[in-house]
Fold this sequence. Notes:
Blueprint: H1 2-28, E1 33-39, E2 45-51, E3 56-62, E4 66-71, E5 77-82, E6 88-93, E7 99-104, E8 109-117, E9 123-130, E10 136-145, E11 148-160, E12 162-167, E13 173-178, E14 199-204, E15 209-213, E16 220-227, E17 233-239, E18 250-253, E19 260-261, H2 266-270, E20 278-282, E21 287-292, E22 297-302, E23 308-313, E24 317-323, E25 326-331, E26 337-340, E27 347-350, E28 358-364
Antiparallel strand pairs: 1-2, 1-28, 2-3, 4-5, 5-6, 6-7, 8-9, 9-10, 10-11, 12-13, 13-14, 14-15, 16-17, 17-18, 18-19, 20-21, 21-22, 22-23, 24-25, 25-26, 26-27
Amino acid sequence: MLRRQALKLGSVLLSALTLGGWTLFRNKAQQPLLLSARDDGDGGHFAVGYRLDGKQVFATQVGQRCHDIINHPELPIALFVARRPGTESYLIDLRDGRLLQTITSQPDRHFYGHAVIHKSGEWLYATENDTTDPGRGVLGIYRFEGERLLHSGEISTHGIGPHQVSWMPDGETLVVANGGIRTEAESRVEMNLHAMQPSLVLMQRDGTLLSKETLGQQMNSVRHLAIAADGTVIACQQFMGDADETAELLAIKRPGQPFAAFPVPEHQLHSMAQYTASVAVHNELRLVALTAPRANRLFIWDLDTAQVRLDASMPDCAGVGAVADGFVVTSGQGRCRFYDCRKAELIGQPLQLPSGLWDNHLHLA
């Protein structure tokens, strides 16, 4: 008991000491810090931080390819999470890119690319695969002790192949996109395409299941999430069925309503090449943005009316995130862009970020 109290006090003191520097760091920044994973032309993997004016804050080489990024609510650190089926995630100092810790997955587990940190700053939950029962989804639970993470346990995601996990606005309820696909250790080969079990799960932090819902198409893998401030859940899918079948690649769960397809025009669904990568919600402007990199298209809709605000060509569009006046979008092959969404006509402007080999996610800190 005394040891736990001492550790907690130490963590609070560390937060107090570093928070001042982090606040100063953030206040000095003229623009948000864009965090993402990138590869170079030689196959090297990097955790990177850039200002939107193109200034590189850091580019830290890491051993395995990363996917999503989540920053600590108080400390100037972020976790770059391993892309499935990676076994290493990286805790990075956001001030200079220093690698603070390499987090290795537990035996018979690998990461699925996403994680969340509790608002207290003490607990982290990461989507993982139980390779002894391939595809059985778990959330690995990790506890911060200063600027280090210690594994503390795990809970079930109540589904197969969990991909993204997010918080509901209460900061206590977890949302999990269970992709429904079984994969073995060190493999991206799908084992059960004709017996997939994708689902959207709401659960408590202690693992208690609150709800589990599915879409109509069994081979429509629920992958990525965006949560609006009012509790609206947006999910985007990757369809594993026949190439000529139309799939509901964007879905919505409004508060008190069932999980259902977002009313996307059929011609837009056809144009997505059955694959979406990243989704984001702009709370102030009430917009939802979606990238479809295999189809080289970016979409933006009105969240409330489903009116199409933008349907634009963008080569290998990857990550998308909301900023003050619109959305930032990275590209794996072309120029990264900022879309100003304040007026009726949405205007895209090239950013001075380096082109090429960006991952499908970005995070703005």
